[in-house]
């Protein structure tokens, strides 16, 4: 019988923009042989527009509806690493659905780390503002307590993406360490 990769049917990454959900999720999926899915990429393919274009053309509320539908459609299977968008779990129904469907891991980074990663980004419409740094700070203050309701919270400051993957594997592997990724 094949060794179980993990006690988690699905591994679901949540956290603020720039914490590395997309980057780490891809690497993690490769390492453990799970399928990688990113809610933003699914939405972009479905609509045929980039995330900033969707915000511009249809507005945030419409994006949130697409995100909610995408999450429910994606999580009908297991064996998946799912990277969510940073706003997905602000909807409590989304958050409880995700917690039912897999192990929810919040990547957690300091404001300074996030700003270093996001200050040059042109693809985060939630930060389009005269003062993106302030916008980031206030969103982060509002959202962080929600992220902390994940099954696990993983600090990522000062860690490479591969180190974050190692930490996640340590969190999710089955009791007794029966993990065929090593
Ligand atoms: N552990 C890390 N160390 C350094 N840079 C990182 C790390 N994780 C992600 N990044 C960089 O930060 C930016 C945002 O990463 P991304 O994976 O898109 O985050 P998210 O999906 O959470 O918004 C990208 O430029 C990515 O290369
Ligand atoms: O935090 C948010 O509200 C958003 C985060 C983005 O995803 P990342 O967290 O992967 O950047 C993307 O879903 C959209 O721009 C909205
Ligand atoms: Mg992402």
Automatic annotation (TrEMBL):
Top-rank EC class of the record's enzyme: transferase
Enzyme Commission number(s) of this protein: 2.7.1.71
Lineage top rank: taxon: Bacteria
GO biological process, one term: amino acid biosynthetic process
Catalysed reaction equations from the record: shikimate + ATP = 3-phosphoshikimate + ADP + H(+)
One Gene Ontology term of the molecular function aspect: ATP binding
UniProt-annotated binding residues for substrate: 40, 64, 86, 143
Any one cellular-component term (Gene Ontology): cytosol
Main localisation: cytoplasm
Pathway of action: Metabolic intermediate biosynthesis; chorismate biosynthesis; chorismate from D-erythrose 4-phosphate and phosphoenolpyruvate: step 5/7
Quaternary structure and partners: Monomer.
Record's protein name: Shikimate kinase
Originating organism: Caldicoprobacter faecalis
């Amino acid at each position: 019988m094949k060794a179980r990769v993990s006690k988690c049917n699905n591994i679901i990454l949540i956290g603020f923009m720039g914490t590395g959900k997309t980057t780490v999720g891809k690497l993690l999926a490769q390492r453990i042989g799970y399928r990688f899915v990113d809610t933003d990429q699914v939405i972009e393919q479905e609509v045929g527009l980039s995330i900033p274009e969707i915000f511009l053309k249809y507005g945030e509320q419409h994006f949130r509806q697409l995100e909610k539908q995408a999450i429910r459609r994606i999580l009908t299977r297991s064996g998946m690493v799912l990277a969510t968008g940073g706003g997905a779990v602000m909807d409590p129904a989304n958050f409880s659905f995700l917690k039912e469907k897999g192990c929810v891991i919040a990547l957690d980074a300091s404001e300074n780390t996030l700003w270093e990663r996001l200050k040059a980004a042109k693809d985060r419409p939630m930060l389009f503002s005269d003062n993106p740094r302030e916008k980031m700070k206030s969103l982060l203050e509002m959202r962080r307590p929600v992220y902390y309701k994940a099954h696990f919270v993983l600090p990522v400051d000062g860690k490479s993406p591969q180190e974050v993957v190692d930490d996640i594997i340590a969190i999710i592997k089955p009791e007794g360490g029966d993990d065929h990724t090593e």
